[in-house]
């Protein structure tokens, strides 16, 4: 499977301030779209809600973006069947949480259904041959100007600045003949609403809470797994649960502090947490992810994996595992030999006693 890396919305250098009138940035209807791209690209934070109707993409997504401490997107999705998903994007990494099973985060290629890249949504509109100003409208208490137009998919895709985002939309737009849109831009140049008709699918994206900065959670590298789960009910997941809960099989609640519900006991939870400086999966250089998407590096500047699963051992079902630390494997073998020897001795004793 070819991995399609996902990055956060690109920041575009802007000379204007957030309160600069649209007319002072770019002129005309096309200029209003460019202004919206600029203003959204430089926003420190924002909230957006997208409603998609029709086809398999139906559902609602909540998007939060912040630049604090690094460019991060949080996307909460609920599909037509009521299933909920959470995705986080930072740098070149898109992860999703498997909270129903292990609580770990997994790197994935892309989100299901329609892509959610707000800046790219606006860039697509630049592929329209003509963008018409409809006129002023009040939207959510804000004074906005409405614009409308349509574009051919290939023309719109050519306007997207990030290649991986263009690839995501290319897949989504496959089979679509034409996309019509309406855009509402406020007096400061921020997009307030986008409505798009893709034929069988329609989408409405509303923006609010610009520059109301807040930090977004992003897990530690030790909580992120680099392979994609193929069977959430198979041996691979059970191996993770055994490791996380410290037991043999969480299904029956036996072993290692997992109670009958499969939840770890407080003692198991404490023992599962790696001590500082040990088992963190991070080198001593304390690497940190780069907003530009550069790989993690150690003190020497050498790239290191985003995560080395610290508690997964070789089971025959797991692609990645951590080699036992020095002495750990020998100790385990010694214990095994001791148990075998004890068993043989017991057997001989029973035989002679018989």
UniProtKB/TrEMBL annotation:
<feature type="compositionally biased region" description="Acidic residues">
    <location>
        <begin position="320"/>
        <end position="354"/>
    </location>
</feature>
<feature type="compositionally biased region" description="Low complexity">
    <location>
        <begin position="260"/>
        <end position="274"/>
    </location>
</feature>
<protein>
    <recommendedName>
        <fullName>Outer membrane lipoprotein-sorting protein</fullName>
    </recommendedName>
</protein>
<feature type="region of interest" description="Disordered">
    <location>
        <begin position="245"/>
        <end position="354"/>
    </location>
</feature>
<keyword id="KW-0732">Signal</keyword>
<feature type="signal peptide">
    <location>
        <begin position="1"/>
        <end position="18"/>
    </location>
</feature>
<feature type="compositionally biased region" description="Low complexity">
    <location>
        <begin position="281"/>
        <end position="295"/>
    </location>
</feature>
């Amino acid at each position: 499977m070819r991995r399609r890396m996902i990055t956060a919305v690109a920041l575009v250098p802007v000379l204007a301030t957030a309160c600069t009138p649209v007319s002072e940035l770019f002129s005309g209807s096309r200029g209003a779209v460019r202004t919206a791209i600029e203003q959204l690209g430089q926003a420190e934070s924002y909230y957006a809600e997208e409603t998609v109707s029709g086809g398999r993409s139906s559902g609602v997504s909540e998007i939060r973006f912040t630049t604090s401490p690094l460019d991060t997107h949080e996307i909460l999705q609920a599909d037509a069947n009521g299933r909920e998903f959470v995705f986080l994007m930072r740098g070149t990494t898109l992860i999703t949480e498997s909270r129903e099973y292990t609580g770990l985060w997994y790197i994935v290629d892309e989100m299901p259904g329609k892509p959610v890249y707000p800046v790219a949504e606006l860039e697509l509109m630049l592929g329209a041959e003509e963008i018409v100003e409809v006129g002023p409208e009040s939207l959510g208490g804000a004074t906005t100007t409405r614009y409308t137009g349509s574009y051919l998919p290939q023309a719109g895709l050519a306007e997207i600045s990030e290649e991986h985002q263009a690839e995501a939309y290319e897949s989504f737009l496959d089979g679509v003949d034409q996309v019509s849109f309406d855009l509402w831009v406020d007096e400061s140049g921020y997009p307030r609403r986008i409505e798009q008709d893709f034929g069988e699918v329609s989408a409405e994206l509303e923006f609010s809470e610009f520059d109301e900065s807040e930090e977004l959670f992003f897990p530690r590298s030790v909580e992120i797994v680099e392979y994609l789960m193929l069977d959430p009910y198979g041996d691979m997941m059970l191996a993770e649960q055994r490791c996380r809960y410290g037991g043999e099989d969480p299904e029956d609640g036996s072993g290692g502090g997992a109670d009958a519900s499969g939840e770890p006991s407080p003692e198991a939870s404490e023992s599962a947490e790696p001590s500082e400086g040990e088992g963190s999966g991070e080198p001593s250089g304390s690497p940190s992810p780069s907003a530009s998407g550069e790989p993690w590096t150690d003190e020497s500047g050498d790239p290191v994996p985003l995560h080395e699963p610290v508690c997964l051992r070789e089971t025959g079902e797991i692609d990645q595992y951590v080699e036992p630390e020095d002495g750990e494997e020998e100790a385990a073998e010694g214990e095994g030999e001791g148990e075998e020897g004890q068993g043989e001795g017991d057997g001989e004793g029973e035989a002679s006693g018989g």
